[in-house]
Design brief:
The complex is a heterodimer. Chain A is an all-alpha fold. Chain A has helices at 10-39, 58-65, 68-100, 103-114, 121-132, 141-165, 169-177, 182-211, 214-219, 227-236, 241-269. Chain A has one domain (66-275): MetI-like (MetI-like fold). The two termini of chain B are 35 Å apart. The chains are: A mainly alpha, B alpha+beta.
């Protein structure tokens, strides 16, 4: 248990906190506010926004009035959920293996996991076009999921590995000593103790996947658009900024609600795991 | 038949022989201790009994049946680990229920047995707590309850109290003795602390560098160490180099160079001319003023070189004629008198002829 460190004196505290505060204010809070304001204005005749004072809630009315938008939301959430699940299933054995490797080899394996980041993201997606094309799998929901999983897998492996690496091997020995076979040891000791890692990885995968538009655009078909594409379209193709802003806000609200729910569930369900996480 | 037997067990790690040809038998209901300095092989033996390690040679038998190839989860014995190894994500109750649930007991039966086990270790009100909320002593008790709850044939304890502070350790030792008596389960205890071993055990196996040096009851181990290692490892002792000059049925005459003759007894057949060490416990030596007479066979003059006043006792280090520094322990049982001699005093150290032991080699 870490002792609470003594807070730095008044002035130091302000000096240290100022740059990040200014940064967040200028590049996060202000733009968010601009988006909120944009969502309640009228679209301009040739794109952009109509001159003030032209306030309107039409974007929201439109959004909630057409079944296509909730549908795309639901499809995006399900897609993100599926991507996250597949990532967990693929990442777990790998993370476990890395965590169980001799210490010297672990660093090399972790390096291999993050090595793909060294090449450009779009190049790697184009590579998938080459790979999937000859099999006739391109421009399908399958291709989109493959691409999403591929891109986000390292974000699941790393937090899981970090978690699994810190497990005390004595706990597994204790479980075995008390009569638990390999299956029981995994489900009653390793898995529950790795939940914080799974949650962390899931957040790192699920949230970016929701907003992702490049992968569906490049690998998906016309019917495979996700919220990310939809938002992008409003700004760049349809030139309906208020609708795009309203969609972006809905996405943010939905993600925040989900994250809050997950945090609440984690606090309730994971009581006592602080010791290992 | 012994409950657990080790027959000619040897275990090697690379070139290192961690356990060398150890044979011993543990009886049902015993509080048995494996005692030795770190690296003596005691933990390796424990791991071979638990099944986490396997002998390279020899075998481990339970009820006369070899345990070779039986994995730890199939052995009817549990371990209390050095750092307790409590499951951090489970409450105290769930920790204790773990072996019961794994064994497939009904919910009601689990609950009943868990409550019983927690009551046994005085933690009845801590069932809902989590391990990180407990003190070291409480964790220790939970580990004990968890290991005992489904009544194993044997309980292995790997230095379970060494992580506790001195006061708590003593209390846990008393509780361990009471608990073992109450549950009647055989305890195999591993420690490097000789006082702990003496206080707790019915029998002690002293190990050194992988070898079994002596296996005996605590008082016998203390009074009749089999060799220099055991004599030196258990308690304080004076080891005086001697040669046997005469040996009758039980009486020995030992010659210590530069000191003279020591009268001793030994029931073993010992030949004149044998060399070895005469081992003598400090508390069996009396220190008199050199003019005081003592009706004791062994009397050697010397001078007090150092003394350590410890309150209840005083340790005198007396330099003898041959330069040997002999340690004598005297209780300060005389009211109003702290010590009997001062540094530099000419004194005589005396002991009965049956006070010490001759150690061969």
């Amino acid at each position: 248990m870490a002792k609470p460190r003594q807070a730095p004196a008044g002035l130091t505290r302000w000096v240290v906190a100022l740059p990040p505060a200014v940064f967040l204010l200028a590049f996060f809070l202000a733009p968010a506010l601009i988006v909120v304001l944009a969502s309640i204005r009228e679209p301009g005749e040739f794109g952009g926004l109509a001159p003030l004072p032209a306030w309107s809630t039409e974007a929201y009315a439109f959004l909630f009035g057409d079944i296509i938008y909730p549908e795309i939301f639901v499809r995006s959430f399900l897609g993100a959920l599926l991507t996250t699940l597949i990532c967990v299933v693929l990442a777990y054995p790998l993370a476990w293996l890395i965590a169980r490797s001799p210490k010297r080899r672990r660093d090399l394996l972790v390096l291999l996991v993050i090595l793909p980041f060294a090449s450009n993201f779009l190049v790697r997606i184009y590579a998938w076009i080459m790979l999937l094309g000859p099999f006739g799998l391109l421009y399908s929901p399958f291709a989109v999921i493959v691409g999403l999983v591929y891109v986000h897998l390292p974000f699941m492996i790393l937090p899981l590995y970090t978690n699994l690496e810190r497990h005390d091997p004595a706990l597994l020995e204790a479980a075995q000593d008390l009569g638990a076979n390999a299956w029981t040891r995994f489900w009653h000791v390793t898995f529950p103790l790795s939940l914080p890692g799974i949650f962390a990885g899931s957040a790192l995968v699920f949230i970016p996947v929701l907003g992702m538009f490049a992968v569906p655009e490049l690998l998906g078909g016309t019917g495979d658009i996700l919220i990310g594409n939809l938002i992008k379209e409003q700004f760049l193709d349809n030139r309906d900024w208020p609708l795009g802003s309203a969609l972006a806000i809905m996405l943010t609200v939905a993600v925040l609600a989900l994250a809050g729910l997950a945090a609440w569930a984690a606090r309730r369900g994971l009581h006592g795991t602080e010791a290992v996480s | 038949m012994a409950l657990l037997e080790l027959r000619n067990v040897t275990r090697r790690f690379g070139n290192l022989e961690a356990v060398k040809d150890v044979t011993l038998a543990i009886e049902a209901g015993e509080f048995f201790t494996l005692l030795g300095p770190s690296g003596c092989g005691k933990t390796t033996i424990l791991r071979m009994i638990a099944g986490f390690d396997a002998p390279d040679e020899g075998e481990v038998l339970l009820d006369g049946k070899s345990l070779a190839g039986v994995p730890p989860e199939k052995r009817p014995l549990h371990t209390v680990f050095q750092n307790y190894a409590l499951f951090p994500h489970l409450s105290v109750s769930a920790n204790v229920a773990f072996p019961l649930e794994v064994a497939g007991l009904s919910r009601a039966e689990c609950r009943r047995r868990v409550a019983e086990a927690l009551a046994q270790v005085h933690l009845a009100d801590k069932g809902a707590a989590y391990p990180h909320e407990l003190s070291g002593g409480q964790k220790q008790r939970v580990a004990l309850a968890r290991a005992l709850v489904n009544r194993p044939r044997l309980l292995l304890l790997d230095e379970p109290v060494s992580a506790l502070d001195a006061k708590l350790r003593e209390q846990m030792q008393v509780e361990l003795i009471a608990l073992q008596r109450e549950v009647g389960i055989t305890f195999v205890f591993v420690t490097h602390l000789q006082e702990e071993a003496l206080a707790l055990s019915h029998r002690i196996a002293v190990l050194n560098a992988g070898r079994l040096e002596q296996l005996d009851e605590p008082d016998k181990l203390y009074a009749q160490p089999a060799n220099r290692f055991v004599a030196d490892f258990i308690g304080k002792i004076n080891l005086i180099e001697v040669e046997v000059t005469a040996a009758s049925k039980v009486l020995l005459t030992l010659k210590a160079p530069g000191l003279g003759e020591i009268a001793a007894t030994d029931p073993r057949p010992i030949q004149a001319g044998e060399r070895g060490a005469f081992a003598l416990r400090p508390e069996l030596i009396r220190v008199y003023g050199h003019k005081e007479s003592a009706d004791l066979k062994n009397r050697f003059e010397g001078r007090v070189k150092e003394l350590l006043y410890l309150g209840d006792v005083t340790l005198y280090k007396v330099e003898l004629a041959n330069g040997f520094l002999i340690e004598a322990l005297m209780t300060n049982a005389a009211p109003g008198r702290a010590k009997f001699h001062e540094v530099g005093d000419a004194v005589a150290v005396c002991w009965r002829h049956d006070a010490g032991v001759f150690l061969r080699g």
